[in-house]
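2 proteins. here.
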Amino acid sequence: MSRHRISFDGVLLLDKPSGMTSNAALQQAKRLFRAAKAGHGGTLDPMATGLLPVCFGEATKFVSALIDARKAYQAVVRFGVRTTTGDGEGAVVERRQVLVTRPQLEAAVGGFVGKIRQVPPMYSALKRNGRPLYSYARQGLEVEREPREVEIHRLVIEAFDGECATLIVECSKGTYVRTLAEDLGRALGCGGHLQALRRTAVGPFSLDQAVTLAQLEALSENQREARLLPADALVAALPRLELAWADERALCLGQAIAAPAGTASGLLRLYARNGRFLGLGEHGGDGLVRPRRLLRVDLQAGGGGAGYSPKQQGVT
């Protein structure tokens, strides 16, 4: 039996466990599916749990749609305690009494909704002079970081016991919930850190669609495959354009085609007449559709669409 499958593409919605890096979870999923190529749609810290979309094969070409998408989290913030990392994995650097009422918390939370500026945490993978910030932090060094604009679309208090608050956070890409927790504690005058984090949604995908690694282990290969979404699920929000054979061939050869009447401007999902997903094109408003990101295809003899077949991925 070959180590890798042939022509294997799809999207797995994985429920990542705590204590595991996103890459380690990716590698386990890749092994279970015997996939030759894989990538994930947005890193979760090892402490965090929840939705980690994993893309296999040609689906990795569209993973940026997930990285750029809105995210949703359930976050537990503990007030009165600051840590070196801004979360529960760091050493405690300060303890303060918490005298925060629910109305005070609600007022503070309201101040973080909308576009805000965050200073990225030192314990992050952002790079400075070619080195990730966490490498400086582990040496006890702190370097200057430029604030970044992010957007908090929704921030709701789900529970509050006077010391810990459970928050529902919906935010843009690039948002650090750890930093949000620290900034919220600072605004309340008592400090705080992120005690727990669970990602509940990425773009159109939600946690209730996800499967754990343990559940995958218990499934047969066919049952695992049934958990996969097709590659075009990543771009399902884009308008669909079905192509005639001649236009399909031209786009797959890198040529622009005349946009059919009524074609929406912007990025488009491209499909063959038989319904096969081809990738993305773009209508620039000039009457032409140009290829932007296509699945690999072989151009073979034939007509009416029969001459196309997905190129098999290499087997090692």
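next one coming up
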Amino acid sequence: MFTSVRRLAVVAHFDTSRSLAPHVRHMLDEIVSVTDRVALVSTSGVDDDGLAWLRSRPSVLYAERENVGYDFKSLQVGYQALGDPGNAEILFCNDSFIGPFLPLDSLFRTMDSRRVDFWGMTRSVEIVPHVQSYFMVFKPHVVRSSTFRNFWMDFGTPKDRAEAINNGELKLTRVLEDAGFTSGAYFEPTDEDALLANQRFAYLMVPESLPPGSVDGWWDATWRSRTASANAMQFNSTIALADAAFSERLPLLKIEALRLDPWELGGRALGAHLANRYPRMFEGVPEFLSRTDHIYAGRYTKKNLRSKFPQLYNAVRYQY
């Protein structure tokens, strides 16, 4: 371990096959390398091979729970399982991403220099600005605060995804900022990023019935009418700007961008190019996707924009 600050971690896990997939093991090993103790909470259970792997890492505490309440409930269970954190920093994350592509120790050092009280790998401005819960870190003075402790003590069991988001990551950011704590993110979109996200959103919103000859006029009017300010934009960087992973400004890839590609920007192609660059991190990912894709079938209705509007696709697709 390379940090002088005591650090703990909580990781939420789910796998329909009860597997501890290779990309998850790589992520966990990176977390183990920068923490004193890790609580892994699974809502699916882990098979014998995975359990043996976990037992070989003495700093990992493993717990299972019923598959209710979404990831935030797992984070609560893991936080409670760790006991009194004392004067420790805590990392909370889930297994919804591949990476990180940079050493975690360097990411922590970068964020220590920014002097924020809590941070995530990304912030989202969807619904309201908030630190995204797939990867979030809280400094010791935040962890010791009554605001933080009371949040986790009072957190219930969400009945659906909307409640989990509203009472989880949205509320946590709000109550901590209301208490005077400052937040930040490792990945900070530039105005150029925001302009690109605007263009990509306009592409996603192209009416399917739009005649090909009307595309240019509609496109120009739509995206230029939107602001280029990153703070005012309603986008999720992990999807709208997923290709920032290729420059390591965003040192991970959310599996949703790879598997579901909700903005139809070429997620599978992006993933293939990243796999060539980071083969170890992507070990076993094709197999993982093939055995779990059925769970997410139908989550998004595809408009097949790439085939309908190929010129627009080439203008806004993920770059690598």
